[in-house]
């Protein structure tokens, strides 16, 4: 039988994946193209990478009880890891020099529609 902590981690991971797909759906409805989900590097990871025109958007998805809690959950250390991963992603793009970039948060809130916070950090 699996330990309680392992089951808890698995449930949290599943909730996180569902939250990422809800956030991706919201961004698609807003006219963004989703380029990557869970982009991981040794430097860090980005939950979603989206694009709209010449704008590359690196999105952190947070499932929290409220909007403020979601935004506050993206610590300075997490921001550094997201920026580092975005630098790796951009370094692999031949069109990177043309792209402007932005860092957003999408809050997944219980019983409510996801909320998009452009240029959150």
Automatic annotation (TrEMBL):
This is UPF0102 protein REJC140_01770. PANTHER family: UPF0102 PROTEIN YRAN. It comes from Pseudorhizobium endolithicum. Belongs to the UPF0102 family. It holds the Pfam family UPF0102.
